[in-house]
Amino acid sequence: MGIMIYWLYEQLLRRGLSLLPEQLCFMITEQDMADAPEKITEVSRWCSELGIRGVTFHISTPDPARVDPFLPFICRIADFARLELHGSTGGGHGEVMGEGMPVHVAIGHSGRGEIAGCIRRMAEDGVEPGKVDEALIDSYLTFRYAPDLVVKTGGSHLTDFLIWQSVYSELFFSDVNWRLFRKVDFLRALRDYQARKRRFGA
Question: Are the CB atoms for 190 and 17 separated by under 8 Å?
């Protein structure tokens, strides 16, 4: 009976969605990956099934090498989506595999580090200070998209990832830990997003 009620509630939430974010970002931790390494693939599939245009996962860690044991789970995303995997070093795009909805997985990245890298590359390219504007900075970013919705599970603080790109993003904080994050929790986040009136800084 409980499973049936859960399924009916999930269907009710899904039918009530008429406005979806185009770009989603989930901020999780190294410990989240250790607790539920398969969850990142599961959530990616939910996004793909709903028709989300792109999703990003930021895995916060002081040492990206500690996420290496979970890479086989992350790479399963390429079975149904276009996975772009970014380590914490380098300024360009990372390893790409698969086809379909773009899924970016950024391991140990810092938003402040990304901005510093933009400035460094502009200096290396000899860009004149008077020519620096928002559009130019956008063109030097590693992650060149702005998430409509940023989801943080488990009640911990956000990181500075996408600090430039997410300035107008809607934020959703879930008390549910990543390991226990269910599809109904995901749909509730989307319902909450749909109910908001976005102002984009106005």
Answer: yes
Confidence of residue 59 (pLDDT cuts 50, 70, 90): very high
- Burial readout 133-163 (b: 16 or more C-beta within 10 A, e: otherwise): eeeeeeebbbbebbbbbbbbbbebeebbbbe
Q: pTM, whole model, 2 decimals?
A: 0.85
Going from N- to C-terminal start, the domains of the chain cover: 19-110+146-195
Q: Residue 198 pLDDT > 70, yes or no?
A: no
The C-alpha R_g of the chain, in whole angstroms, comes to 18
Quote the CA–CA distance of 22 and 35 in Å, as a whole number: 28
What's the distance, CA 125 to chain centroid? 30
Model confidence at 89: pLDDT above 70: no
CATH class as words, domain 19-110+146-195: alpha beta
| Range list of H helices, the chain | 2-15, 30-35, 39-50, 71-75, 111-124, 134-140, 183-195
Quote the pLDDT of residue 90: 44
